[in-house]
Amino acid sequence: MTEVIRCWWTGMADPMYIAYHDEEWGRPVHGDDLVFERVSLEAFQSGLSWLTILRKRENFRNAFDGFVIEKVAAYTERDVERLLADAGIVRNRAKVEAVIANARAALDLPGGLSELVWRHADPDAPVPASMADVPAITPGSKALAKELKKNGFRFVGPTTAYALMQAIGLVNDHIAGCVVRTAR
């Protein structure tokens, strides 16, 4: 039997984690609302396990109206209180308010959020041989974080920006030999 090689972070063998790795992580995501969802989830993940966010993702989608930018941008303090009372999501006021502020900022972007984020793609990033070869921050993630912040986004530091870049395919950080490295 041939051993299937996957990236190190799927090591806990949780079926949800493996499905995310095999079917989503590192695959190109385009479209303002889809990219906004990923920016938002990465912000919520800050300081937490990604598996925690994955397990709550459908709850997040329901709570935030499918991450439709125009809907989230129209949220009021009443929506903030509704979200903070929702046990199905991460109830952190700063993060909830950041998602709403980010939606409002996204509305003002010339060309849209997806276009801004994809300007920072790095298709020529080196193929990591192991976990040690995967950076937490890159010049591209610093530039993306800086541009997002300049445009009014919150909770988008260079580490969060790099996690976003990995998640939506701006870089391909599947390790060499990973079963899905070339399936993008």
From TrEMBL:
Pfam families: Adenine_glyco
Gene3D superfamilies, per the entry: Hypothetical protein, domain 2 (1.10.340.30)
InterPro entries: Adenine_glyco, DNA-3mA_glycosylase, DNA_glycosylase, Tag
NCBIfam families, per database record: tag (TIGR00624)
Protein name (Swiss-Prot/TrEMBL): DNA-3-methyladenine glycosylase I
Organism field: Nonomuraea typhae
